[in-house]
């Protein structure tokens, strides 16, 4: 029980305590809804990986007119550049029209962008580069709205007992999609024609079509429904999915009262301008954390491996298409296992502790990667031990990187309260896309220009990130989504006042029952008076 609220929500009886899934139909339905959102992140990971994997295929280079490092960097940055503009638009759409429309937009742009990309270079005399860049830009207009909205939906529909785990598993689906993309690219790398890269790209249509259909079955989130005057629908959501149909479920009653009252207190600030929003206690801290949680994973060096691993392996002396895609597939499988482990561990490990331990390990790993690559390069690519060490360091570096990665997708939506969630995720998206565009463009040129020295650039950046995390991250483990506000505002938070009122009412009700019952063996006052 928290001192600030007086309510130990985790101990409140609930349907999941008596009916475990899959017999608990409400909980099973929630897991199904989560799986639909996971498909989108799977698709995001698949798309991101094959974009890097295709660069190892000779026919892709031929069909696109053999683009140089500058052009490849611009191509990868195109999706992020377009994505920067989508944050403010999505913040309006997600609060005005609901959570599902941005997800529909994501599936449509993924299908359209895939078709445009697949036909790149088909026409004789057409290098295909411009069409492929257009494909990346179209897809890039859909990914940010999806990422912003799906994370909000995941947090808002999840059962409170399973919310941290479901949210933490989010990025593991990116790695799963990345692994499947690597396997398919590895298989098609043996084809000696354009289908070696067109098949992996074309297959993006399958999950996109499934998701466009399946998302229609996902209900609107109760927080959105309450905020838009649809309280009866929101109450039915809690009863059906969190209480397994039991309208008298105690946890459902607590969630309902807490959420309804908290949103009512917060709702006024939702209509504020940015200037007014920043005056509210804790909001600057929240927005700063949203920005920090994308600055850290985007500029920790991992994007070099994700988007340019064929270039990284080439610097280690591995240049064959089959070898490159094969190692990439193994690395993705390894990353998937690590992310699952990291997601599961969030149930036991505090958020701050995970970051503060992982980041020094990343700095050491990046320094070792630069050193081993430097030795290999200075030997004229003859020092096999250094080459093997360079490849091994990629795998070792991925341990702290992927183990901590699930946190960075669950944490931003956690720390943003309902009234700030749309605006806050817009900030998250803008910073995410800006750093992504920078990294995608600069990484290609830097690796081509200064080679192994570029790894060392990230060591001081990682050090600065660690300092920022140490001083500004707040712990969210053990709180409901509403109660996280207490970490920023203390007892002045809206939810703290609500929970204190609920606790008082519960205590008063219990005192009333005790008075009516009386001491053991005594006649109650009610009986005497009758």
TrEMBL record:
Entry keywords, A to Z: Membrane, Transmembrane, Transmembrane helix, Transport
Its membrane topology: Multi-pass membrane protein
Transmembrane segments: 27-46, 72-93, 105-122, 128-147, 168-187, 199-218, 354-376, 454-473
InterPro entries tied to this protein: MFS_dom, MFS_sugar_transport-like, MFS_Sugar_Transporters, MFS_trans_sf
Composition-biased stretches (Basic and acidic residues): 506-519
GO MF annotation list: carbohydrate:proton symporter activity
PROSITE patterns referenced in this protein's UniProt entry, alphabetically: MFS (PS50850)
Domain Major facilitator superfamily (MFS) profile positions: 33-477
Compartments where found: Membrane
Any one Gene Ontology cellular component term annotated for this protein: membrane
Pfam families reported for this sequence: Sugar_tr
Keyword flag Nucleotidyltransferase: no
Region (Disordered): 506-530
Record-stated family: Belongs to the major facilitator superfamily. Sugar transporter (TC 2.A.1.1) family.
Xref: PANTHER family: MAJOR FACILITATOR SUPERFAMILY (MFS) PROFILE DOMAIN-CONTAINING PROTEIN, PLASTIDIC GLUCOSE TRANSPORTER 4
Protein name as catalogued: Major facilitator superfamily (MFS) profile domain-containing protein
């Amino acid at each position: 029980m928290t001192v600030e609220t007086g309510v130990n929500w985790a101990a409140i009886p609930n349907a999941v305590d008596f009916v475990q899934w899959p017999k608990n139909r409400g909980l099973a339905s929630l897991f199904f809804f989560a799986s639909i959102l996971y498909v989108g992140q799977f698709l995001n990971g698949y798309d991101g990986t094959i974009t890097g994997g295709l660069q190892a295929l000779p026919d892709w280079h031929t069909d696109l007119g053999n683009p140089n490092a500058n052009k490849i960097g611009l191509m990868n940055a195109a999706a992020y550049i377009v994505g920067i503009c989508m944050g403010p638009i999505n913040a309006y759409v997600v609060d005005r029209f609901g959570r599902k429309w941005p997800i529909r937009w994501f599936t449509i742009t993924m299908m359209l962008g895939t078709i445009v990309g697949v036909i790149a270079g088909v026409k004789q005399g057409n290098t295909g580069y411009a069409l492929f860049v257009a494909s990346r830009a179209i897809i890039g207009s859909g990914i940010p709205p999806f990422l912003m909205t799906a994370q909000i939906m995941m947090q808002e529909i999840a059962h409170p007992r399973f919310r941290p785990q479901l949210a933490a598993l989010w990025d593991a689906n990116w790695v799963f999609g990345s692994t499947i993309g690597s396997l398919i690219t590895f298989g098609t790398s043996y084809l000696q024609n354009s289908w070696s890269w067109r098949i992996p790209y074309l297959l993006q249509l399958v999950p996109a079509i499934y998701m466009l259909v399946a998302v229609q079955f996902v209900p609107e989130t109760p927080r959105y429904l309450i905020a838009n005057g649809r309280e009866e629908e929101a109450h039915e959501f809690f009863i059906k999915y969190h209480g397994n149909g039991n309208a008298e479920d105690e946890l459902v009653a607590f969630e309902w009262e807490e959420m309804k009252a908290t949103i009512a207190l917060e709702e006024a600030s939702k209509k504020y301008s940015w200037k007014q929003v920043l005056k509210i206690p804790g909001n600057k801290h929240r927005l700063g954390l949203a920005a920090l949680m994308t600055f850290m994973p985007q500029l920790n060096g991992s994007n070099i491996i994700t988007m340019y691993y064929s270039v990284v392996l080439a610097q280690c002396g591995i240049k064959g298409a089959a070898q490159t895609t094969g190692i990439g597939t193994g690395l993705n499988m390894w990353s998937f296992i690590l992310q699952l482990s990291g997601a599961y561990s969030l149930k036991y490990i505090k958020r701050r502790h995970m970051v503060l331990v992982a980041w020094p390990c990343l700095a050491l790993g990046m320094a070792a990667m630069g050193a081993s690559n430097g030795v290999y390069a200075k030997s004229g690519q003859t020092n096999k031990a250094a080459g093997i060490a360079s490849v091994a360091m990629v795998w070792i570096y991925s341990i702290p990187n992927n183990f901590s990665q699930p946190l960075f997708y669950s944490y931003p939506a956690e720390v943003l309260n309902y009234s700030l969630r749309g605006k806050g995720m817009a900030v998250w998206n803008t910073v995410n896309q800006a750093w992504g565009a920078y990294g995608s463009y600069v990484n290609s040129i830097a690796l081509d220009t200064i080679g192994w020295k570029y790894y060392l650039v990230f060591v001081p950046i990682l050090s600065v990130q660690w300092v920022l995390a140490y001083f500004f991250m707040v712990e969210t483990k053990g709180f409901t989504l509403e109660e996280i506000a207490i970490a920023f505002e203390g007892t002045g938070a809206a939810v703290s006042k609500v929970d204190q009122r609920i606790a008082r009412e519960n205590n008063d009700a219990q005192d009333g029952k005790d008075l009516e019952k009386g001491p053991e063996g005594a006649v109650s006052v009610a009986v005497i008076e009758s």
